[in-house]
Write a structure and sequence with these properties.
By secondary structure, this protein is of the alpha/beta class. It has a domain of about 120 residues: 3-Layer(aba) Sandwich (Rossmann fold), CATH 3.40.50. It has 9 helices and 10 strands. The strands form 2 sheets. The protein has a 6-stranded mixed sheet with strand order 6-7-8-3-9-10, with helices on both faces. α3 crosses α4, α3 packs parallel to α5 and α4 crosses α5.
Length: about 260
């Protein structure tokens, strides 16, 4: 098993592909994000770690323009998301892959049709052969070429996650957003998904935000960890740096995950 904090991996710390400053978001009297700052650089996996209900998913929905912040700036690939019109926002989203927690496959389509769908909707000039080649490439990347004719109902939870990632990869996004990628999976399948996230990063040179409350996922996939507690990033750095503290909030989270 590969542990991320032991890798000697150099991130290109040029201009960030995602830059968030002073981000606030409330729902009624519930303050979810309270002045969040975050940079993600080219080729980097950043894990946003925290308990359920701490605003992790709200953060990535704001990044892709599904939610509007109350205050603050969100710059993605050089564009200020909150200022984009509908057409420009749709164009930006094509450069961002969103891997949903539930995989979001179409139950009435087989694997091939699920993968073809985003190409046919968004890239109009491709020939049938080019579409077929793209489908086979991403299926090979996630290790499921033999499942091309299967229906989603015939797939395991881990296989659905892999096909969901493949469907995201088929548009060759520059940024990947993973929402709880190991949720509901057994430990062995979770490890396989973690390895796939790292493989995607290396093969496609993606920059990623990985939303999770799973410390093993964070440890195995994150170049940097940003720990979201109380609406703010309480700790940020490599995995061991984040947990090198006597802070009771941080230690209790670590102990709950690793000492049961």
């Amino acid at each position: 098993m590969m542990e991320r904090q032991e890798q000697d991996k150099t991130i290109n710390n040029g201009h960030p592909v995602i830059s968030i400053r002073g981000l606030y978001k409330s729902f009624g009297e519930l303050d979810v994000l309270k002045g969040v700052d975050l940079d993600v650089f080219k080729g980097e996996n950043v894990v946003v770690l925290g308990r359920s209900g701490t605003g992790k998913s709200v953060l990535i929905k704001i990044i892709v323009g599904l939610l509007q912040p109350d205050k603050g700036s969100v710059n993605v690939l050089g564009q200020e998301v909150t200022k984009l019109n509908g057409k420009d926002l749709d164009a930006l989203r094509l450069k961002i892959g969103f891997s949903f927690q539930n995989s979001a496959l179409y139950d009435s389509m087989n694997v091939r049709e699920n993968l073809e769908f985003p190409l046919k909707m968004n890239v109009k000039h491709l020939s049938k052969q080019e579409i077929n080649n793209a489908v086979e490439e991403v299926l090979e990347a996630v290790g499921l070429k033999d499942k091309i004719k299967q229906m989603p109902s015939d797939l395991s939870g881990g296989q659905k996650k892999r096909i969901g990632i493949a469907r995201t990869l088929i548009l060759k996004p520059e940024i990947m957003l993973y929402d709880e990628p190991t949720s509901g999976l057994d430990p062995i399948t979770s490890t396989e998904i973690n390895e796939l996230i790292n493989s995607v990063q290396e093969k496609y040179n993606t920059s990623s935000i990985i939303i999770t409350h799973d410390l093993t996922c964070a440890k195995e996939t994150g170049d940097r960890i940003a720990m979201l507690l109380g609406g703010q990033f309480l700790r940020m750095g490599k995995f061991d740096e984040v947990f090198a503290t006597d802070d009771k909030q941080v230690r209790s989270f670590f102990n709950y995950n690793f000492i049961k």
